[in-house]
Amino acid sequence: MPPSEFQRARSAEAKQVREDAILDAARALGAERGVRTITLTDVAEAVGMHKSALLRYFETREQIFLMLTAEGWRDWSVRLQQGLAALERPSVEQVAALLAETLLERPLFCDLLAQAPLNLERNVSIEAVRAFKTIALGEVHAIGDALAAALGLTERQGLDTVATATSMAGALWQMATPGPDVQALFRREPQFAHALVEVTPQLSRILVAMLTGFRAGNGLDGKTGQA
Questions:
Q1: What burial letters (b/e) apply to 79-113, b meaning 16+ CB within 10 Å?
Q2: What is the dihedral of CA 184, 196, 62, 133, to 10 degrees?
Q3: Rounded Cα–Cα distance for residues 174 and 110 (Å)
Q4: What local confidence, expressed as pLDDT, does residue 175 receive?
Q5: How far apart (Å, rounded) are the C-alpha atoms in residues 222 and 38?
Q6: Contact residues for 191 (Cβ-Cβ < 8 A; gap 6+)
Q7: What is the secondary structure of 107-157 as a DSSP string?
Q8: What is the pTM of this model?
């Protein structure tokens, strides 16, 4: 819809429809081009409204993407907990692989995980940050508890595992997805081949080492959970 045809929402239901359309547009643009390249004008044009009209629904582009990050936390938490519940006798290797695979199945979430502390939390109101943190920390604790129960970890170790998995996923995803010109350079010049990171296996190896150390410190076998 051209911007000139946009009509302001007049009811709560219509406002929700507009907000959902804005989030859908930002989600699609972020997945296609990377979050850091998307401007508020890009989102507004994708929805068919002027930027000034979009600001009636969201305070900044950062708020839009922060809401998508919260959505990503909820989605990943549900998928991961379902996966853990399906493991009959979870091993360190199985859990590490599940963490890595479920994160990297969500490339936009990995991108957002890196962007949130660097940018997205810095140009929004305190109320927006509080709303985001409430959701994210709730899921962190839910996932941490599930990991602790699956592998005999302490509560602190479960939370540290979530923090490590998500921060590393965000960082490694950024390293693995440079711009097309840089990717071409890395592929063309053999001495730069190491810069092309294979995120899932690398993240899984890091988590296996971490979880094995936690369990050994707790007096458990590194793989099977036996004392």
A1: bbbebbeeeeebbbbbbbbbbbebbbebbbbbbbb
A2: 170
A3: 8
A4: 83
A5: 44
A6: none
A7: HHHHHHHHHHHHTGGGSS-HHHHHHHHHHHHHHHHHHHHHHHHHHT--HHH
A8: 0.87
Q: Shortest CA distance to 53 belongs to which of 112, 105, 7, 102?
A: 7
Given a cut of 70, the residues of the chain with pLDDT beneath it are 1-10, 179-180, 182-184, 193-196, 222-227
Record the tokens describing residue 217, joined without a space. 């410190």
pLDDT at position 41: 95
Q: Are 69 and 116 in contact (CB under 8 A)?
A: yes
Closest CA to 116 of 163, 81, 77: 163
- For residue 167, which of 178, 175, 179, 156 has the smallest C-alpha distance? 175
Residue 227's pLDDT is what? 39
pLDDT in tens, 204-227: 999 999 999 999 999 987 554 443
Instruction: Write down the residue that tokens 């959970």 correspond to.
Output: 225
Kindly tell me the sign of the dihedral angle through the C-alpha atoms of 109, 112, 114, 117.
negative
d(CA 137, CA 139): 5
Q: Quick count: other Cβ atoms within 10 Å of Cβ 216? A: 11
